[in-house]
Amino acid sequence: MSLLDQNWGGTGGGGDDDALDDNQQGKQILTSRDGTLMLIECAPEMFESLSNTMKTDSSTNDDNDDEDLTTGFQLIMRACQRFYQSKIISNDKDLSGIILYGTEKNKNTFDFNHIYILHELAQPSAERIIQLENLSKQDTFKKTYKDLFGSTQSKGYSLNEALWTCSNLFSNSPQRLTIKRVFIFTCNDQPHASNLTLERQAKQRAKDLNDVGIQVEVFPILTETRTTFDYKKFFQDVLMLSDDELELRNNQAPTGRLNELLKLVYSKEHKKRAYCTVPFSLGTASDGTPLQLSVSIFNMVRPCTKPSKIKLDMKTNMETKTVTKHYLPETAEILMPSDIQYGIDVSNRRVLFDADEIKAIKKFADPGLEILGFKSLSCLLPHHYVKPGHFIYPDEKYIEGSTCLFNALLKKCLEKQMFILCQFTARRNTSPRLVALIPQAEEINKKDPTDRLASNGFHVHYLPYADDIRTLPKNDVARLSDDQVDVFKNVIRGLKFKYRPEKLENPALQTLWRNIEATALNKDKPEEFIDLTVPNEENQNKKVGQYATEIKQMFFPPDYVMGVTKRTAAKRKAETTAISSSAKRSKSDENIDVEAAARNNLV
Q1: Backbone angles phi and psi of 487, in degrees to 5
Q2: d(Cα 324, Cα 451) in Å, to the nearest integer?
Q3: Pairwise CA distance, residues 600 & 603, whole Å
């Protein structure tokens, strides 16, 4: 069987990593649903104050919401609330639910003691978010919790039964789920220390979940009485961690900040699915067999668009359905797809094509990367950027040994500072693109060995064709004196800052979603949003305001007024002229005899 007979070019899933095609801007190629269950321990320790190791100085805290989150339970409820809100924005088709264990009351299908299903597996809603907000507020969470669930000092609840409840919710899900996850929030690193039977059952249940494709993750919470969390005691077997992974987990300090906890949750929940998997052809061997390895392609950047509008019936408020039909204007006969041809006018002649011919025209090559050669990295220029690219990893699923060959190729490209010039076809019936594979070495945060700043692999950088390049008109640049250059050097130094794109949110999107959230949750006003894309003029004036006068004297004529351009002056002149002519018309209108004009039929 040929390699191209396999499922090359297929997308690996959902909305988070689907690329936007040139012909399908704004449409998802495949849609999928993920299911996430929050399994939260409600032991008495979870209602104690957070451990000093998890508390942070409020002066360095960038989230004011952390100030009233004094207990582990509040912190988790607020994290679940934010998780729901992010799901509504990022992928509202995903299902989420919350299960509490260690409660006095119980609510579950099997009538297990001390297990309460707070939220069934479903899409997030405004009612759920409001309930979680009440469970995290400092002045209401204790009363709300006791009224709904009670509390228990008993240690007799079983983690095995809690995991079984999670498995049952996934099994009874009305929607087919692509990925299933269980997030355990607990302060107890050995929940069944006094009962080996329950401990063995819980470990076996976790193994069964893993065997059926349900991922389990643990988020430890430290309190005043639970100041340490050792994965080796129990959760190493539940998570099936290797010795190296165990060491990394134990060296990673739990967090008591809302933003950092959410960051951990999102990192575990993030869909790491490939945009597509394609063969990487390096040529042919001496015996004529193709030399190929398999790579998976991931998206690094994807535009986040506003939600699309839904058309509703004005009377019933029901969603409408759009149906498009083609018909002949002469006879009003409805045309079927087989009756439609496509054409293009060339030299006063219309050339016609049918659907099969259109497909044949669109097909250039089979999906894959085909190497064309190697070039020095210095050949890449800034204006060669076309659109956001991808990142590739080796994939052993289709071709064994791909990782070894991929790493050897990456190592040599890094040593020689070369990039690989390739022809890239993402899927069938898509035009091939010219790309540069730019090598990248792995980079680890020196302060935190568990934090990987950059992964080893190749960036897929789209290159322009000759038809895409435009030449600029020649412009004679005036020579500047050293004093003029030095002034702008000082301005540049004063306005330098560390650019971090993850800190700059889209103001249009954030304003829209905060207004939608305020309406859905019955808030008086939307949550305040600080737009970091607006320059801080006061801060800029402190740093470079002193150079404004020098720049004005060096580059502008003596009568120049800052902020006034020729276009602005012309516009003001036109407005003045219009006002004066309007005044003249008004003055002449006052002298008109309306009665005489009416008699002469002039009104």
Answers
A1: -60, -45
A2: 52
A3: 8
CA distances from 323 to 320, 326, 334, 342 (A): 10, 10, 13, 21
Residue 63 identity (one-letter amino acid): D
pLDDT digits (tens, 9 = 90+) for 261-281: 777 776 665 666 778 889 999
Give 199-225 as a 3 state SS string: HHHHHHHHHHHHHCCEEEEEEECCECC
Q: What is the pLDDT of residues 25-60, one digit of tens each?
A: 333 334 578 899 999 998 888 888 887 655 544 433
- Are 460 and 19 in contact by the 8 Å Cβ rule? The answer is no
First to last CA, the chain: 89
Pairing of strands 418-425, 433-440: antiparallel
Pairing of strands 95-101, 115-122: antiparallel
What is residue 491's three-state secondary structure? helix
Instruction: Give the helix, strand, coil percentages of the chain, each rounded to 5.
Output: 35, 20, 45
Rounded to a whole number, what is the largest CA-CA distance in the chain?
110
- Which run of H or of E encompasses 129? helix 126-136
d(CA 32, CA 40): 26
Per DSSP, 484 falls in state H
Q: Which of these, 275, 248, 242, lies nearest to 393 by C-alpha position? A: 275
Quote the CA–CA distance of 129 and 519 in Å, as a whole number.
Answer: 13
- In sequence order, what are the beta bridge partners of 437? 420, 460
Helices (H), 217-316: 235-239, 243-251, 258-269
Predicted confidence (pLDDT) at residue 61 exceeds the cutoff of 50:
no
Say which residue the tokens 């009665």 belong to.
595
What is the pLDDT at residue 528? Answer: 84
Locus of tokens 């497909």: 359
**What single-letter amino acid sits at 159?**
L
d(CA 118, CA 161) in angstroms, rounded, equals: 16
CA distance 153 to 85: 33
Chain centroid, CA 409 distance in Å: 30
Q: Tell me the H-state helices in 252-322.
A: 258-269
Scanning the structure block, which residue is given the tokens 């899409």?
A: 123
Bridge partners (DSSP) listed for residue 459: 391, 438
Q: How far apart are CA 97 and CA 119, in angstroms?
A: 5
Kindly give the pairing relationship between strand 34-41 and strand 95-101. Answer: parallel
104-107 long-range contacts (CB < 8 A, ≥24 apart) are 104/149, 104/150, 104/151, 104/152, 105/148, 105/149, 105/150
Name the token pair of 256.
């008591």
Least confident range from 70-74, 419-423, 558-562: namely 558-562
**Residue 141 · residue 75 · CB < 8 Å:** no
Measured CA to CA, the distance from residue 255 to residue 264 in angstroms comes to 9
Token pair belonging to 124: 């997030």
DSSP helix/strand/coil, 370: strand
Per the document, the length of the chain is 603
CA atoms of 398 and 294, how far apart (whole Å) = 6
pLDDT tens readout for residues 455-473: 889 999 999 999 888 888 8
> Which pTM was predicted?
0.68
